[in-house]
Each structure stands twice: as C-alpha cells, then as structure tokens.
Input
Amino acid sequence: MDGKIPRARAYRAGQWHSAERPLAEEVPVAITVNGTTQAVMMATPADLPDFARGFALTEGLAQSLAEIEEVEVLAGLQGIEARLWLTEAAAGRIEARRRRSVGPVGCGLCGIESLAEALRPLPRVPGGIRITPADVADAMQALAAAQSLHELTRAVHGAGLWRPGAALVAREDVGRHNALDKLAGALALAGIAPASGAVVLTSRLSVDMVQKAAMIGAPLLIAASAPTTLAVDQATGAGITLIARARGGEFEVHSHPGRVMTQSDEDSDAA
Output
C-alpha cells in the first residue's frame, strides 16, 4: 500500500519550500475472536488478513492454521476490525487464558494480566538451516530491497523470511510486532516453514519478538539492532539463534552460534 502524500512546508538550506512527503498510514485495528475483542493495535492497513492469522499463531490463540476457520476484515468510521473465527477447541483455550491488550505501536505485552504470562513457557525450536556470514549480509540487503513502503516514508518496520535461492517473503508495518505477525500469517497461508530460512527484522530484538518467533518455529533471527538481555535468555532456552547489529557485513551472534558457519566450516564443506 502506498503512503499518503500530504503537502508540507520544508526548511532547507535557509529557505522555505513547498513539499510533498509520503507518510505511513496508522489506524486502529481491532482483532476479534469469535465475536470478542482480543486486541486493539495501531497498525498499517495493509495485509490485514495476514496480520490477523499471524497474531493468532504467534500469541497462541490458535495452534495451527487449521484452527482458524475464517478471517474477515471490515472497515469502519473509527478503524478496522479483523475478525477471526476459530474452532471450538481454540476458543476454549482462549477463555481459559483471557487476554485483552489495548496499546500503542511498539507495545508487545500490553494487557498481559500476570508476570507469568509475560514470561510464558516457549516451545523448543529444533533444526534450522546453517548460514554463512555472507548469507547474513544478503538477507539484510534483500529485506531492504523489499521495503517499498519504508522507501517512501522512512517510517515503517519490515520482517521477512530469507531462504537460500528463493525469493524473500516480506511484510511491513508501523509496528515491529505487527510486521512479524503479518509475516507469520503470510508464511502459514503459503505453507512455508520458518525453519527453511532465517527471519530478518529491521527492529531491535525484544523478548516479545523472540516469543513470537518461537511460537511459529523460527530458529534463526537476524536483526539490524541489538537484543535485550531477556531476549537472549529466552532465545537460549528456546534454541533460537539471535544475530544482532547486522549492518555493513558485520554482526554479532548472541545465542546458539552453531547455525552460523565459521571459515573452517565453509572450507570443510568446499573440500
């Protein structure tokens, strides 16, 4: 979706100019499950069916795509409603773990009702591909090239799945959590396993991003910015490789470094 282009006054080189600057859209999006609101997020109004499916999967509302029976997106005067209809089994689990979150962009744990929920047990993520340092740089470059809305607005985050020899699947949003949820929904609908590549992010690696990655079985996370200490702890426990500060061909690996090949590994494979 293209950014909106309102007129503005720009001050450059000591002079005032008339300017047009594309801006990212940000609207309230309510996610409802079987008629009950689960979350209201500020989001970019693109790929909202992917957003709804991905949110359900990364937040554990649905354990698989098979538990999502229908997705409906309805625009209203005050915002957009993304309606999910889940199976009876999934609805029962939600009732047992009631969650309501009404929060701004960037707040991934708004509405959690206990500390135990904030640090929920994560599934162990096995397997995953092994990548080279050159692959890390390629993945970041591929995500940058796929961010058409960010190129226009400089105001949105991106999340993508990089796979060797395959086209990058990417989604964008004003919220980093929303971008990852949209990606999760798109991958599930396309039948693409996150373990077949590396999830690439423009944002920092906060603990909630690690939690969402674990819920969809993503063993590799590459990000432009740094992780938090809690994110590293959770990734270590979940078996996820965190690659942070990936810029200009340089990066840091904070957990499970065995998925990133050393020079001796590459030499051995080439022999």
User: Anything to note?
Assistant: The domain at 27-118 is CATH 3.10.20.10 (Ubiquitin-like (UB roll)). The two ends are 47 Å apart (CA to CA).
